[in-house]
Specification:
single chain, 134 residues
Length: 134
């Protein structure tokens, strides 16, 4: 990446992540959302930006170029509202045409179930054809 491209990427990051963080702070101030105690929106946004720099769409184009800035900001906002971290593999950024979406992974769904659904313990076992189970 050339110095000029790096400068543009830093400016874009500051614009998008700052806008999202400002929106999050406004939502928190008005009581519209509550961020989990063990979650840092700033760290999550920074790690998400690092991941987005390497994320490609199905045509192998960088999502930061092929997706709209609004959808990028909304996907980051969704990630923070859910309190998930892509660095911990709790969700993925997926391009659908020009729209970027944040989608929880299995581990993200477990975090959400524990945090908001009251899940206390989780045990998983594969079930195969012919198996009997309760």
């Amino acid at each position: 990446m050339s110095n000029q491209n790096q400068s543009v990427a830093v400016v874009e990051e500051k614009n998008i992540t700052t806008q999202v963080l400002n929106k999050i702070n406004a939502f928190q101030s008005s009581g519209e959302i509550r961020i989990p105690k063990d979650y840092s929106p700033e760290n999550a946004l920074k790690s998400a930006w690092l991941i987005l720099q390497d994320t490609k769409d199905r045509n192998n184009n960088p999502v930061l170029q092929s997706c709209t800035k609004e959808s990028i900001a909304n996907s980051l906002l969704k990630m923070v509202v859910w309190g998930l971290s892509p660095l911990k593999k709790q969700g993925d950024f997926i391009a659908y045409g020009q729209n970027l979406e944040f989608s929880p992974e299995y581990t993200g769904n477990l975090v959400l179930a524990k945090r908001y659904g009251g899940l206390i313990n989780h045990s998983q076992k594969a079930i195969f054809k012919g198996d009997e189970f309760e």
